[in-house]
Amino acid sequence: MSPDEAFDVRRNIELAFDQPLLPLSVNRQSVGLRDANGNGVTSPVILYDPITRVVSIAPPAGGPWLQPGLAYKVVLTVPSGEDDASGLRSVGRGTLDPKVRHEIGFQTCGGTRPCPATPLPTVARVRFCNDVMPIFVRHCSGGICHGSPVGDQKPAASLVLDTSIGVAKTAIGRVAQGANTGASSGRVQPAGHLFGVDMAIVQPYSPANSWLMYKLAIDEPHDDGVDAGAALRPRCYPTESPNAPVDPFGGGSPFQVKYTRMSASDRAALADYVFGNPMPYPSPDNTVGFDEIERIRAWIEQGAVVEECGAC
Which tens digit of pLDDT belongs to each residue from 99-127? Predict the structure, then answer.
């Protein structure tokens, strides 16, 4: 954002990073929001998208948010040591430069700087049967992958993604085999100082702590019209035409993050921590599109509710 622009208080604040972040480190101690007097803004919600590597600072539900026409700053904390959780880290435990003061100042619109007249779109509700199950069936359930057992053929990693009950029983809240540190099937553990330890395949409300998102992230998505990118997250709307599909890696207004694709080297570095093949397999013949990944991410962020879809 340039000095001549003012932030629209109706939007989330977003910060894009060039490397995947350690989920534990994305918290209110690491990403602080303060007013001009240095006082912390009341309990902002800190979210992390592991696909676009964007940290969002959102208002608390029903709580106070930024006031119009005032100055604020985002303060990013550097950890003081290996065990310090109050500082941003990459998956590989790298940190921001400790010699630099990481602050981003801005002013909200209002007063002498009027806010844009364009109304903000609402976030669409993702429905499992309409938006998510078709993706699993199309990309994940064929051959020796994650279809229901047939005769002696068992689903890979005991993960069934072609029925509602299969997703509910084998993906939601179940430790991924590649993340499991137990003898057979461990319990899901809170995000820790090491990436991915006992991480759930799907952790409701937390794409950042869902192993599935990282299995998708280590394979580059193809362009597919990015319809869901426009439909599911307000930050992907251009200011003039809220119903038009847009490229979420291009940005749509001065108040939105300009996304960049993860580089091949960064995907390779992430793959060092995400064991096994990229999903879906085989790649590149079966890669998912950004539209599809957006639907899965939004479904998890909204609680990963699994409905009975009948004969999908």
Answer: 988 999 988 888 777 877 766 656 678 88
Same domain, 107 and 1: yes
Residue 100 CB coordination number (10 Å): 9
Residue range 235-287, pLDDT digits in tens: 332 333 333 333 444 444 333 455 577 888 888 889 999 988 888 876 556 77
Domain boundary among 65, 93, 117: 117
Q: Are 171 and 232 members of one domain? A: yes
pLDDT tens digits along 293-312: 888 998 999 999 999 986 54
Domain end marker among 117, 148, 166: 117
Q: Give the whole-angstrom CA distance, residue 299 versus residue 297.
A: 5
Question: Helix, strand, coil proportions of the chain in percent (round to 5)?
Answer: 20, 15, 65
Structural domain count of the chain? 2
Contact 264, 199 (CB under 8 A): no
User: Could you tell me how far CA 130 lies from the centroid of its own chain?
Assistant: 21
Q: Are 94 and 136 in the same domain?
A: no
Q: What are 181's two structure tokens? A: 């540190």
Q: Which domain covers residue 169, as residue numbers?
A: 128-301
Contact 131, 299 (CB under 8 A): yes
74/155 same-domain check: no
Pairing of strands 13-16, 54-58: antiparallel
Distance from C-alpha of 146 to C-alpha of 288, rounded to nearest angstrom: 15
